[in-house]
Amino acid sequence: MKSGLHIALRGKGRPVLGLAGFGCSNWIFDHWTDPLCRDHLLILPDNRGMGLSTPVQEPYEMDDLAADALGVLKQYAKEPAIVLGVSMGGFIAQLLALKAPQTVQALVLMCTSSSGEPFVPLPYMSREAMKQFYELPPRERALQAIGATTHPSFAQIQPQRFQQVVQNRMHHASSWSQVSFQYDAVQRFMDRAVPLEHISCPVLVMTGADDRYVDPRNASMLVERLPNARLVVIERTDHLFFLEEPEKTVSAISEFLESLL
């Protein structure tokens, strides 16, 4: 599947692999990561079936997405990479660090969790309800999605930025025919615990203080279970805290990356 992945490359320097979340392509890294491009090569694949990557025809697992990510690193990273996983991308990042630790210098796990107990489960949406959501008109779907994953004050305090995020989501809409494979893969992933104690690289865990989708307590539990992790909480933000407060997000990531030198 590696050859069917669309990959965007930005900047130059130390490699940073960005892994997008559920139903998203690499647009989720647009704009806010620009400061990182001054000293880093951002490697931004679209996950299977997302964005400009080849549509898939068969079921796959989260482990397959981790294998795709490993293939991307082998192709574009000349040294161990920092892996930045957003939401579901954090699941992929954890599996990648376990699968090929020699390719991963550090992880940045954003608005994410892990599987099994004691993590607080994600809000459940049935397959049929998810299908109906993805059949909504694009703008309505984008408004609902961004409204549910950004802080209630975001649209009032930063109306232009809110509308830009909605436009980006709408412009890069994914189809249910492809998202359905991701939905099933996530459900299967959540059924088994990830051996986090075996991830030895440095990890920065970040969460919005008011995340309504991934309970912020999960970020604390990740830090407790990962041997070499630290936590940053962005106040008055929700699931997409990095789009709400990009400057604070990049500042925390940059400080973490500098600590690796």
Termini separation: 34 Å
Radius of gyration: 17 Å
Helix content: 40-55%
Strand percent estimate: 15-25%
Query: Strand order, biggest sheet?
Result: 1-3-2-4-5-6-7
Number of helices: 10
Structural class: alpha/beta
CATH topology: Rossmann fold
Runs in which pLDDT lies below 50 for 5 or more consecutive residues are none
Q: How many domains comprise the coordinates?
A: 1
Average of per-residue pLDDT values:
97
Order of helices and strands: EEEHEHEHHHHHEHEHH
CATH class: Alpha Beta
How many E-type strands? Answer: 7
Largest sheet: 7 strands, mixed
Described by the principal axes of the CA atoms, the overall outline is globular
CATH architecture: 3-Layer(aba) Sandwich
Please provide a written account of the structure:
By secondary structure, this protein is an alpha/beta fold. It has a single domain, classed as Rossmann fold. The chain contains ten helices and seven strands. It has helices at 62-76, 88-99, 127-134, 138-149, 154-157, 159-171, 176-189, 217-225, 241-244, 246-259; strands at residues 7-11, 14-19, 40-45, 81-86, 104-110, 203-208, 229-234. It has a seven-stranded mixed β-sheet with strand order 1-3-2-4-5-6-7, with helices on both faces. β6, α8 (217-225) and β7 (229-234) form a beta-alpha-beta unit. The radius of gyration is 17 Å and the shape is globular. The N and C termini lie far apart (34 Å). The model has no long low-confidence stretch (mean pLDDT 97).
